[in-house]
Amino acid sequence: MNTHVFKQLVGVFVFFVVTQAGFCQPIVIWTTDGDSLTALSVKMSENISDSLIFFQKSKKRWSRLEQKEVFSLTYPDGSSQILYVPTREDDISVSRMTMFICGHSMGYKGKKSAPFFTGFAAGMISMALPPDRLFLAPIFPLTTTIVVGRVSPLKMPNFGNEDMLDGYVQRRKKQNVKYSLYGGIAGMTVGSLASFVIYGWGWK
After folding, report:
1. Contact (Cβ atoms closer than 8 angstroms) between residue 86 and residue 93
2. Among candidate residues 159, 180, 48, the one with its CA nearest the CA of residue 111
3. Number of domains in the chain
4. Other CB atoms closer than 10 Å to residue 156's CB: what's the count?
5. Residue 72 backbone phi and psi in degrees, to 5
6. Is residue 94 situated within a structural domain?
């Protein structure tokens, strides 16, 4: 094949990959609870009285949220659209909610390895149990996950804003509990298999 033609084909391929990657960048939906959801597409309900937001999670799957559950939409180009509108006296203001969501976004960026390996280590304790006692194995990772949730986060950042700190603490607790649970399941699986290796495959 001619070298010039080959370079042109490579260039076309790279352009296609880059443009497709750009098109596939998701829209980020921030809920008023601080959860971050990704969507391929978002559209508002045509019925104004419904106040529903439909978002496409995959090519064939659509989900919906009530507009009051959504704080903002962040588009692939970096622009944002705030949908949150306080409607009751006890609803916090848009500026305070913005700081709360900002705290959640910072909480998402925390390390996941520490809670995961803490849960994994707890799950591995199951290797000390004989096969006929493995029904007790979930106690160790579940107890550890509860403790992780209570003490998280171990370090408090100095944001200088209570709403931002509240959002950060809530998100770190959720993230640490989730990854501790993931680690516990993985450790319990490995520990249970090790139990059969240590004690034999028969039931004592």
Report:
1. yes
2. 180
3. 2
4. 10
5. -155, 165
6. no
pLDDT recorded at residue 30: 92
Both 110 and 195 in one domain: the answer is yes
53 and 123 housed in the same domain: no
Amino acid at 45: S
Q: How far is CA 145 from CA 116, 117, 150, in A?
A: 10, 11, 9
Which two three-digit tokens encode residue 162?
A: 């209570």
- Closest CA relative to residue 100, chosen from 88, 114, 84, 89: 84
Q: What is the pTM of this model?
A: 0.75
The DSSP element (H or E) to which 55 belongs, if any, is strand 52-58
> Which residues of the chain carry a pLDDT beneath 70?
1-24, 47-50, 201-204
Rounded CA-CA distance 141/179 in Å is 11
pLDDT at 111: 86
- Among 85, 115, 131, give the residue marking a domain's end: 85
- Identify the pLDDT of residue 155: 85
Is the distance from CB of 144 to CB of 119 less than 8 angstroms?
yes
Q: Does some domain include residue 43?
A: yes
Among candidate residues 28, 51, 85, the one where a domain is terminated: 85
Per DSSP, what are the bridge partners of residue 36?
30
Structural domain of 13: 3-85
